[in-house]
Amino acid sequence: MALINIVLNDASYKKRYVAHCKTILNEFVANGLFETMATQYQTLIDTAIQSDIHKLFSYSDFQGAMNTNTSFGSYNIPGISNLMNARNSYLNGLTNLLRVNL
């Protein structure tokens, strides 16, 4: 049996798991900390991306990856902010997350 099934089938574990998820959501996603960190990482690796001769995406794609979706074949890859903000909205709409008081 998968660990997540064990966690979600035990009321005490589930409550703690959901509380941790909500904490991460509030302290990392909702307040924009993930964007700050992603921008710092983007700055850190910028030179390496520019000089990479085997990259799959253009340098322009890399620069816009925070807020711009990119097509790759038949796939649409969301920008990091687009993905996380949509995930934040979705998760905040889930009943289990709304019921847990921290």
Give a brief description.
The protein has helices at residues 3-8, 11-30, 33-51, 59-64, 80-92, 95-99, and strands at residues 70-72, 75-77. With 102 residues, the protein is mostly helical.
Q: Could you explain how this protein is built, in words?
A:
The chain has 102 residues and is mostly helical. 68% of the residues lie in helices and 6% in strands. It is built from 6 helices and 2 strands; from the N terminus they run H-H-H-H-E-E-H-H. It has a two-stranded antiparallel sheet with strand order 1-2. The longest helix is centred in the N-terminal third of the chain and has 20 residues. It is elongated and about 50 Å long. The mean pLDDT is 91.
